[in-house]
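Retry 2 of 3 after timeout on previous attempt. Resubmitting C-alpha cells to design endpoint.
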C-alpha cells in the first residue's frame, strides 16, 4: 500500500508589497514562473517563484493599484498593465521599465479602474478590457492611446470581471447584485447581451467562468458561492445542471466574505479564498469539497494558478473587513499543489 503524499507547505516570497495586495497574475508566456502583483502601495512587482526572488519592481506613480493584466508581445517582451484608484490604465515594460498611460476612467466622481483583462485569447494581443466604479466597460487598443475603441454602460459599479475566450464573452459582477455578459466578438464592437440579478442575496466580490463557458461561479460577502448556468446564452443541451449555492468560509456563527475564485487550468475544479485566511478546493460539477489548505495569518485578497495548476499563489493581506486595526504583514505565499488535491472526485 502506497504511503499518502505529504502536503507541501506554503512558502512566503521575499520582498512582498508593503500595503494591501489587490491582484496576482502569472505571466503565461514567460519561460520562467513569473508572478506579477499589484498593491495599495502603488507599485508593480514581479517575482520568480521558482527561484523565490523578486526580479522587478516599479512605482506606477498613480496612487493605489486595484487591478492588473499582462501582455505578451510578438518579440517575447512582457508588459504589465495596471488599473489605478485614480482611474488611470498604465503599462510598464518589464525589460526596459518604460511606463506609459493607455487611457483612463476619469470622467466621473468615482473613476477607479477596478477590473482589467487581456483579450489576447479571444481577439487581438493588443486589446485589453477595463471596467470601473464609474459603471463603464471599455475595450482599449494599446497601440492607440487616449480613447477607448469600445464603451458599454454597466448597470452598476464593476467589482470583478472574467473572460470566456471560447465564446468571446466577458462576465462582470456589479453593484446592485447584477451579473452582466458582454459579447466581444469584434475588437471594435461590443454588446451587452445579458444583464440579470444574481441568486446571491448580498454584494458579490468575485466572478469566474467555468472552463467551458457554460456557467459561472460567484462569491459574495456573506460567505457563500453560487454556481449559475447560462441557459440564455448557450444551447439547452449544454445547460445540463441546475444552479445552486453553498456556504463556505465560515467558523461557527462567524461569516467571512469570499474574496476570490480561481479555476484549475487542467482539472476544471476551483479554489475559493476569503477573509478567514483559508483556501478551499471544490469540485463544482459534482458538488463536492476536495480539500482545505492550512489557514494563513490573515485575509486572502487574491489567488492565481500557474499555467499547469501545479502552483498556487496566495495573497495573505488584510482587507479591512473589521476596519482599522493591527494586522499581520502582507505576504505572497506559493503553495505547490498535488493532483490529488485538485482532481474531481470522479477522476480519482
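Retry 2 succeeded. Sequence:
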Amino acid at each position: 500500500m502506497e504511503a499518502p503524499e505529504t502536503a507541501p507547505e506554503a512558502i512566503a516570497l521575499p520582498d512582498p508589497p508593503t500595503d494591501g495586495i489587490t491582484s496576482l497574475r502569472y505571466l503565461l508566456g514567460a519561460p520562467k514562473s513569473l508572478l506579477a502583483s499589484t498593491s495599495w502601495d502603488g507599485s508593480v512587482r514581479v517575482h520568480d517563484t521558482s527561484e523565490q526572488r523578486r526580479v522587478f519592481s516599479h512605482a506606477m506613480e498613480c496612487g493605489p493599484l486595484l487591478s492588473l493584466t499582462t501582455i505578451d508581445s510578438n518579440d517575447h517582451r512582457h508588459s504589465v498593465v495596471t488599473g489605478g484608484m485614480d482611474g488611470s490604465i498604465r503599462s510598464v515594460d518589464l525589460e526596459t521599465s518604460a511606463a506609459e498611460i493607455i487611457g483612463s476612467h476619469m470622467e466621473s466622481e468615482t473613476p477607479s479602474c477596478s477590473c482589467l483583462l487581456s483579450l489576447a485569447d479571444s481577439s487581438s494581443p493588443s486589446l485589453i478590457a477595463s471596467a470601473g466604479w464609474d459603471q463603464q466597460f471599455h475595450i482599449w487598443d494599446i497601440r492607440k492611446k487616449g480613447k477607448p475603441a469600445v464603451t458599454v454602460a454597466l448597470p452598476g459599479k464593476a467589482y470583478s470581471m472574467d473572460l470566456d475566450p471560447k465564446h468571446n464573452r466577458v462576465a462582470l459582477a456589479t453593484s446592485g447584485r447584477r451579473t452582466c455578459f458582454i459579447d466581444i466578438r469584434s475588437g471594435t464592437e461590443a454588446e451587452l447581451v445579458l444583464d440579470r440579478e444574481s441568486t446571491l442575496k448580498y454584494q458579490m466580490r468575485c466572478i469566474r467562468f467555468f472552463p467551458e463557458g457554460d456557467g459561472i461561479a460567484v462569491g459574495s460577502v456573506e460567505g457563500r458561492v453560487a454556481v449559475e448556468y447560462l441557459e440564455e446564452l448557450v444551447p439547452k443541451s449544454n445547460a445540463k445542471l441546475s444552479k445552486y449555492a453553498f456556504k463556505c468560509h465560515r467558523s461557527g456563527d462567524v461569516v467571512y466574505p469570499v474574496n476570490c475564485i480561481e479555476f484549475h487550468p487542467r482539472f476544471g475544479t476551483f479554489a475559493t479564498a476569503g477573509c478567514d485566511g483559508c483556501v478551499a478546493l471544490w469540485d463544482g460539477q459534482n458538488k463536492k469539497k476536495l480539500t482545505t489548505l492550512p489557514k494563513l495569518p490573515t485575509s486572502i485578497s487574491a489567488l492565481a494558478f500557474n499555467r499547469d495548476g501545479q502552483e498556487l499563489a496566495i495573497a495573505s493581506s488584510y482587507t479591512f473587513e473589521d476596519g482599522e486595526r493591527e494586522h499581520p504583514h502582507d505576504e505572497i505565499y506559493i503553495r505547490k499543489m498535488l493532483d490529488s488535491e485538485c482532481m474531481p472526485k470522479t477522476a480519482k
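Attempt log closed. Helices lie at 339-342.
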